[in-house]
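Exam review. A common question shows you a sequence with its structure tokens and asks you to describe the fold in words. Practice with the pair below. Do the first one on your own.
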Amino acid sequence: MIDAPDAFLPAFLRAWHARDGSAIGALFTPDGDFVNVTGLWWHGPDKIAAPHQYALDSFFAETTLRPGRTEIKDLGDTAIVRARLHLTGQTAPDGTPAQPRQTIMTFVLIRTDAGWLATSAQNTDVVPGQETHLARENGLHAVDYRR
């Protein structure tokens, strides 16, 4: 049981490093949702657990998540946990090591009889020095209009 909002991120990181998608799903309310870095949107603990397990068994099998700046807004029976995470060890589709990257994870937590659980989460890739994405025929590209 997660007894305080500041215990949520360490629980998420433990589940990640244990390569346990079910433990990640168990951190969510029955109606909880998770939006990943590419906009995939999963609803419910099982639907959150399954793609995490797939990733943790494959391209994230050797990853490490290290937390950076973390902010917690305690709003009573609700809290927002936002953390910069540094990811290393990802494998590229061709099997080569990927470069490290950073994301910002945002969790909206609610106090339940089972402790603090996430009702919503969003993971956003950090693209240093860029302002937005620009859609082109060959996909999205991070751009900076200030240049």
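Now try the second one, then compare your answer with the model answer below.
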Amino acid sequence: MQVSLKKKAIQKTRIPEGNIFAIRELQDKHFDTTWHAHLEYQLFLVMEGTGTKFIGNTVKPFDKGDLTFLGPNIPHLWRSDESYFEQQSAKTSRGLVIYFNGAALGQLMEKEEFTQLRTLLEKVRHGMEIYGKSAKETALLMHELLYLHGMERVIHLLRIFDLLAKSKEYHLLHDDVVFYQPKDMETNRINTVYNYAAQRFRHKITLEEVSTLLNMTPTSFSRYFTMKTSKSFSYFLTELRIRNACKLLSTDEAKNIAQICYESGFNTLSNFNKQFKTFIGMTPTEYRQKFLLTL
């Protein structure tokens, strides 16, 4: 079964004509703020920076070392934390990305020797998050790839795919294949909503104010957002706040649960605890303790 995402997703092509793939280093104050999709496979490593990634219908925090492999036509956005947008901020966001043309290998993909690669590329149509030793080894290979040329580049890329095809250190981000059709492109409405929510989730956001952004009534906006994202706006906003709380619980031991609750946009500790357990399956205290045990 396929999940059809009919949101605005600007189509981008990143590979020069005549190339099988392209690898690029990204460096700026913050990552691109545009919700977009493209026909190429994408392997993206965060080398520096923190924020929230929106991939298909998934919302998750990202940090240094985050490694994600996406199939074609999966809409995505790595939204840097608000501190990266501050004019006086000295923070920098850096990434390393490989764009791969899946059709470039042509008939070779049908041969027995490429069975594992075919399986891998089918998996990443769900969106794949790689972790552990596999992520670290892949990151090293990606850095080495920057300095290679000609056939060496292609051979090295296949080494990366071989490593990932054999790895069991990954999570699929969606149960179903994520599929976005370019003909369904509309406007930049979802971009507007995502960026506004990412900026304001620590504060109260009403349906009235967010619907005004799109010149809609609250009822029309609510119906529109649910149709395009398969979730209500209130669910999406709670999910965004919970993911921020998870990040703080796992990275900032100086803050207590109450501080994290209010800094993540919740008005009461009781509601925070209830929502956190609903989304994560444990209390904030249990989550923090479990994380500390893994260190």
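Model answer, second protein: The longest helix spans residues 233-251. The chain has two domains: 2-179, 201-294. Full marks require stating both points clearly.
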